[in-house]
Every structure is written in C-alpha cells, then in structure tokens.
Amino acid sequence: SQQGEEDPQALSIQEGENATMNCSYKTSINNLQWYRQNSGRGLVHLILIRSNEREKHSGRLRVTLDTSKKSSSLLITASRAADTASYFCATDAGETSGSRLTFGEGTQLTVNP
Amino acid sequence: GAGVSQSPSNKVTEKGKDVELRCDPISGHTALYWYRQSLGQGLEFLIYFQGNSAPDKSGLPSDRFSAERTGGSVSTLTIQRTQQEDSAVYLCASSLEPSGGEQYFGPGTRLTVT
Question: What is the pLDDT of residues A3-12, one digit of tens each?
Fold first, then answer.
C-alpha cells in the first residue's frame, strides 16, 4: 500500500493564486521528495527535503516538513496555467525500505487561465 | 545529455502473450528502478537494481514478472502470460546516488492488454 497520502486529491485554482498540497506518511524517513507528472507520463523531480530540514525553497516552490506530524506541504506561489499537472510526494525510508521511494496517490492541480 | 529512455512508448498485446519493456538509464547512474502506474493512481514499486548487487524484487506482483539489467546499464522488464490487470504505464527511473536520491524518470511504456 502507498505510504504517502496527498490531499486534496484534486485542486482547481485561478492563475496567480497560490496552490497548497499536503502529504502525510506513516514511517520514519530519510527524506521526502515532490515530483510533478504531466499527462500520465514521466515524472519530473521538483525538490527534496531531508528529515533534518524543516523548510526548503526553489523558485516559486516552498516545501515544509514536520516529522513529528509525519506530514509535508508543497506550496506553489503565483500559479500559472503551465503548472497544471499531477503532483506526487515520495518518501525514502532508508534501509528499511530497501532503497525504494514510496509514492502517494497524487494531487491533480488545475490552474485556470 | 540524454535522459532516461524507454521503448516501446506504447504496446498493445493480447492476453496470454509475453511482452518485453526496455529501459536505457542515464549513463553513469548505478541505480535503476521500475514502477507501475495504473490509471489515476500513484506509482507502485516493482524492482530496484544497484550496481552488481542482487536486485530488490520485493515489489514484483507475481512470478510472471521478471527483470534483468545487463552490463549495469540497459534493463528489460518481462511480463509473461499477460493479463488484463497488467495494463498500466510502466515507468523506469535511474539515480546517481545508491539510495534515496533524486530519481530521473523515463517517459514510460503504456501497456494495454486486450
């Protein structure tokens, strides 16, 4: 079963607004990553946050990690129509996971022009 | 430089037939992963190769699924006696770090079993 669970499952906003997606997980982790997927094909890595980090920025992206609550959030500021995609969180649980990433079900973001 | 490539991009096969899916990772990446994504779902881990170590096959759903990685580079995922529930997008990824690092994904192979 998937460890990560994103919410909301779907989010529709207007261009220029901010989009916030959340991810919860169950086990302890080494790091948590966010990926983006267009049209059900290959995923593109967005950002990685390590378990000892609480916040990370990359351009219009801001990721937070709360290991006590086992949750993370991805904020996209000043959204654009081109941000329309599915967004997945993925956790690396280190040795116990056999070096795999465990993906959540994803949030489908639609940015309306 | 070239990214991860996969072939074919689409494959339609009849139930009961065998299929082979190919993945060419980024040159120099020692870690290679196969995932499966059913319609509207997240990614399901299938198998992981790291260098010359024994692969982690714990995600393979049945003994009809197998994979190999020749010469530490190209990998082939084979599904024998395909079933309709095998229909999905099969994604390959490679990583420079042995574990837990950023993964670079190929475009996937969309498999349809009729």
Answer: 567 788 899 9
